[in-house]
Design a protein that fits this description.
The protein has a twelve-stranded antiparallel barrel with strand order 1-2-3-4-5-6-7-8-9-10-11-12. The longest helix has 15 residues, at 191-205. It has helices at 159-162, 191-205; strands at 9-17, 23-28, 36-40, 62-68, 73-78, 84-88, 93-99, 103-107, 111-118, 128-134, 140-147, 180-185. By secondary structure, it is mainly beta. The relative contact order is 0.22.
Length: 220
């Protein structure tokens, strides 16, 4: 949903479980049908079927597919020790996300897109993790909240999210570390930015990759 007064927009991603047991995340920018859905690629959906805690050793990488409502797809190939790779449906690399104690999203053709860093005041509570998204010059582009509990969906204190009247719907309880994501930005996103930011949401919420140090431990 875009705020016509400020030009800001917010995209929520809510994690749910399919009848098969696999997790998916549905992204919405307002009431109605999802603008995109991501789930594990069927060809690699073997082995462990349920999430593990962030920061723990994983036996392999995960590949998820982000499918937009217009049919456009982005493959998100995540590895514990290598950059997360973004590819088109045909296998062409379009971006990378470099993950250390923070993370940086890079377009193959346009260079650095943004950086993910901990919120300087309150990066972690019992209900939510909070990250800042910085542009290539280090200015704030937006904010990313990672919801840890159903109460986290109703958490206030983010001026960008407060511009959107639909954002505080209650959420379901699932036995997973991250129930969903809330992405709030101060302007409209271009295709590269949107793909990188939603891919990051998928990589964290479904791929369980820690983009900041605070995400490496979920013990309370």
């Amino acid at each position: 949903m875009t705020d016509p007064l400020s030009g800001s927009m917010m995209i929520e991603g809510r994690v749910s479980r399919r009848a098969s047991g696999e997790l998916r995340i549905e992204f919405r920018s307002g009431p109605g049908d999802p603008i995109a859905v991501a789930e594990r690629e069927e060809s690699v959906a073997t082995g462990r079927r349920f999430p593990i805690s962030l920061g723990r050793t994983k036996s392999r990488g995960d590949t998820h597919v982000l499918t937009y409502s217009d049919g456009y797809r982005v493959r998100i190939e995540s590895s514990r020790d290598e950059p997360t790779v973004l590819k088109t449906a045909t296998g062409t690399r379009v971006g990378l996300i470099l993950v250390t104690d923070t993370a940086t999203a890079i377009s193959i053709t346009a260079g650095t897109i943004c950086h993910f860093v901990p919120h300087p005041e309150e990066p972690r509570t019992g209900d939510v993790f909070r990250l800042l998204i910085l542009d290539v010059f280090g200015a704030e582009l937006g904010r990313l909240s990672l919801i840890r509990s159903p109460e986290g969906w109703g958490r206030r204190g983010d001026e960008l999210a407060d511009n959107h009247l639909w954002w505080d719907r209650a959420g379901d309880t699932l036995p997973v570390p991250i129930l969903g994501t809330r992405l709030a930005v101060g302007r409209r996103l271009d295709r590269d930015e949107r793909d990188a930011l939603l891919a990051a949401c998928v990589d964290i919420a479904l791929g369980l990759r820690p983009y900041i140090t605070e995400l490496k431990c979920l013990d309370g």
